Amino acid sequence: MFKTVAPSIPFPPAASMEVLFTQNQIAERVREIGRQISEEYAGESIVLIGVLKGAAIFLADLARAISVDNTFDFVAVSSYGRARVSSGAVKLIKDIDNPIEGKHVILVEDILDTGLTLSYLRGLMLQHKPASLKIASCLDKPERRLVPIEADYVAFAIPNRFVIGYGMDYAEVYRNLADIRLFPEELAVGH
Fold first, then answer.
1. What value does the mean pLDDT take over residues 96-110?
2. Could you give the CA distance from residue 188 to residue 171 in angstroms, rounded to a whole number?
């Protein structure tokens, strides 16, 4: 039996947070990106590589919105831990399970902000010699960029605010929300 552990920090109710993008807005953008990818890769098959844990929901929805043959795999990295701000050091926790050499690959991320994680992962994936490599990100925070990297597919550009929902969390809470919400800045500072 699992024990329920009370969080050591306060978690405000999701309903009290401002909605940035609704479930319907997200679904429409994911369908649009899926159509674009399907057109660009017509007659081909692709491998979607999701960055755990945040991109899992975006990847699942995107995979269903793509009409060409696609499979997926996952990588896991750590640069945040339980902090709000990236430490800047990216550590690979889980590599892909299947070879991608000669395959068309799309790296799927929840948020492109500093670019450190995606730059690291792009370099790692290129070592596997895919036929092509592109990046899809649900959210983009261009004003946070520390390294020059851009996504090929972006659902939404956002201001430099901490967000939760649609796979994105605060201390592992709120990932299951269907929409994307702004987390209160006064609570996110220092965490």
1. 97
2. 10
